[in-house]
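User: Please fill in residues for this 140-position structure.
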């Protein structure tokens, strides 16, 4: 997914004749957070998952983007989806930046309580990087 997103980005950047410096600024995420998530199954054994939150860009406003639950989620997926959210909100002229989160789990194999626990631990681990207290500063 990341390779495809990168290729499409550069196609658009070629049409816009963007410099290498601007391309680098627009492509690079401002923050990547990776967290380990250990929770207990209903039967008592431990589960281990990895979660990601990528905050791509907030030049146009607060960052928006959901949380994906899928067994193949990795850092590259989160980077690609966060960048796409940034560009989607910009193209639609919505005053938001882009972000995305993901946890490498299969929700169809989890009980409601197990999924709730995984989500709560994830949010607990990233809470200092999300929410209304993030400071939005317009670019110079």
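Assistant: Residues filled in for all 140 positions:
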């Amino acid at each position: 997914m990341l390779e495809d997103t990168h290729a499409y980005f550069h196609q658009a950047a070629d049409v816009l004749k963007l410099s290498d410096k601007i391309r680098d600024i627009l492509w690079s995420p401002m923050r990547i957070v990776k967290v380990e998530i250990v929770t207990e199954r209903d039967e008592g054994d431990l589960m281990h998952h990895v979660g990601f939150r990528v905050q791509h860009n907030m030049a146009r406003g607060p960052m928006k983007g959901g949380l994906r639950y899928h067994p193949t989620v990795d850092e590259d997926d989160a980077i690609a989806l966060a960048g796409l959210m940034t560009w989607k909100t910009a193209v639609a002229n919505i005053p938001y930046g882009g972000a995305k989160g993901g946890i490498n789990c299969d929700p169809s194999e989890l009980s409601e309580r197990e999924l709730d626990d995984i989500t709560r631990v994830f949010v607990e681990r990233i809470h200092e990087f999300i929410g209304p207290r993030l400071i939005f500063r317009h670019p110079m």
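For context: The radius of gyration is 17 Å.
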